[in-house]
Amino acid sequence: GYAFGGTIAEVAPDYPNVKFIALDVSKGDLLEAAAALAGTYQFTKPMIDEINARMAAEARMEVLAAADNFEQMDVALVDGVTEVYKATNGAGVVVTSASKGFGGAVTVMTGFDAEGKITGVKVTDASQETPGLGSKATLPAYTGQFAGATTVGFGEAATGDETRIDGVSGATYTSTAVFNAVDAAVAQFAELGGAF
C-alpha cells in the first residue's frame, strides 16, 4: 500500500504549490528500485572512471604544457599529496595534493619544470566550497600567483626567497586550502630531489 497516503490526501489542499509523491512500498518495490540503481551504477562506473582519468590527464597537460605524456611515479608521498606523475620527456612533474577548505577537501594539481619552478596550478575539485565565494580561489587570478615560484609563503608570512601568495578576500578558507595544497606539492618536489 501507499505509506501516508491518507495524510497526503488530507493536507494536499492546504499546500497547492507543493507536489506530493506517493510511493507504493508493497511487494518489494523499494528493493527492486535499489537493485536497479545498483545495476545502473555497475554499468556506468567504468565510463565514469574513464572520463575522470581523461580529465586528470588533461589537467596534467594544462599545468605542465611542455610534457609529452605522463607516467605515475612510485614514491613516498609527503602529507597531503595523493599522487605524483613525471613527464616522459623529462619536462618535469605534476603533483596532486589536497587540503581542507571550508566545506571539505580542496584538490589541486601543481606542475613543476625540471628546475622546480611552478609551471601551473589547477584546482581540480573544490565542489564542497561555498559557490561564488570559495570558487574565487579556484580562478586564474589567484592560482596564477604561483607561476614561476620555487617556494611560497602565505601573505605577510612570506619570508626571504618565498614568493608571496595573497589570499582571496571572502574566500579565506579556500584560498588557504589551495595554498596549503601547493605548499605540500613544493615539499614533495623537494623530497624528489630532482630524481625523476
Could you explain the architecture of this structure?
There is one protein chain. The chain is of the alpha+beta class and 196 residues long. It is extended and about 70 Å long. 34% of the residues lie in helices and 21% in strands. The N and C termini lie far apart (65 Å). It has helices at residues 5-11, 29-63, 140-143, 172-192; strands at residues 70-72, 81-87, 92-100, 105-113, 118-125, 152-154, 163-165.
Which properties best describe this structure?
single chain, alpha+beta, 5-stranded antiparallel beta sheet, two-stranded parallel sheet, 4 helices, extended
pLDDT averaged over residues: 86
- Give the low-pLDDT segments: none
- What is the tally of helical segments? 4
Strand order of the largest sheet: 1-2-3-4-5
Q: Helical content, roughly?
A: 25-40%
**How would you classify the helix and strand content by structural class?**
alpha+beta
Q: What is the tally of beta strands? A: 7
Q: Give the C-alpha Rg.
A: 23 Å
> How far do the termini sit from each other?
65 Å
Largest sheet, in brief, is: 5 strands, antiparallel
* Order of helical and strand elements: HHEEEEEHEEH
Mass-distribution shape: extended
Percent of sequence in beta strands: 15-25%
